[in-house]
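Researcher: We are triaging several targets before committing to wet-lab work. For this one, the compound of interest is S-adenosylmethionine. I'm pasting the protein sequence and the ligand SMILES. What I need is the predicted three-dimensional arrangement of the protein with the ligand bound, expressed as structure tokens, so it can go straight into our comparison scripts without reformatting.
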Amino acid sequence: MTLIKILKFAEEYLTKYSFSKPRLEAEKLIGHVLKLDRLALYTNFETELVLEDKEVIKKYLREMTRNKLRFEDLVLEDKGDFKTSNIELLNKTIDYLKEKEVPEFKLDAEYIFSNVLKVNRSFLNFQLSKKIEDNDLKEIKRMTILRGKYRKPLQQIFGEWEFYGYPFLVNEYVLIPRSDTEVLVEQCKILLTELENPKILDIGTGSGAIAITLGKEVPSSNVIGLDISDEALLIAIKNAELNITKNVVFQKSDVFSSIPKGTEFDLIVSNPPYIPLDEYENLMVEVKKYEPKIALTDNGDGYFFYEKISKEAGEFLKIGGYLAFEVGYNQAEKVAFLMEENKFKLIAIIKDYCGIERVVIGMKTGEEDVDEIK
Ligand SMILES: C[S@@+](CC[C@H](N)C(=O)[O-])C[C@H]1O[C@@H](n2cnc3c(N)ncnc32)[C@H](O)[C@@H]1O
């Protein structure tokens, strides 16, 4: 039975028993059982309900009619004092994370509860009125200790994180996709709008966040994601499957080493390891202990990959093709200079949501050939 059918059934059932606002009552009841807010019921109306949910809905309907109670009153009777004790538990979790000096202690506690209770963070308050099952309590505790005592990043505790609205599996072998990188993806999308079947190369693909997102957002494109790490490539492949992406492939490569000479792309994009070694030493524990060093630093001044890629990219770009980099907070100017040195034109620097210069883009115009003839 689909969600819309059970909604209709519940409405008719409550109408028969002379409930006022039977549709609203039916929506509240079904939303409660399926852990969806009322509006979300209508975006999921074709979802097939599992037997267990149908039985719970029927049980509530019977109790509502038998006791002549609106749904909210029934749940209030039902829930005893769960809310008070659950909020107490949430506050204890917040205090514990604060004591352990977790930077976003309140937010992280809410994320842990939402993840375990499988509810969007904005509906957590509502969810806290319900009993938290014993295995969920254990899971909350386990995650809180990992986050507080061991300072493991939430993304790795959950094993999955969202980037540009898509889910990405993450583990200790890949950089956790950052929201800063969404700015790079956004700019790449703009560059590709006019092109029919753009060919894209993503160097240092990690979880595949950039390659897969571009593949999804520009379905006519063909994307190759490169990485030197076998373990990262395994995760990238799983992420392509998770996101049902058919136009993205991954291959092992030390920068351009696996790309045959003569192959040309419309866009080469890279978020390379760019943290200078001396800054790497002082990174917060979450990053330094849990994220792969190979994804973070070039073991030098932070410019190794910008220099190498800027120097070699011209050979693998069509005329009119673009090179787009994510850069560290103070690197944009030098990277723009490196690109200019390597004959890239129309260099643009784009800021992220915090106003930090985050993306540098240049175009291969072919003008260097003209200079040579002169
Ligand atoms: C900063 S992470 C970027 C990951 C992902 N593209 C993102 O934006 O979330 C850099 C990636 O470059 C990879 N990498 C490091 N050295 C490399 C090399 N010589 N050739 C190719 N990839 C390399 C690392 O394994 C890591 O996955």
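Researcher: Any quick observations?
Model: Residues 82-99 form the longest helix (18 residues).
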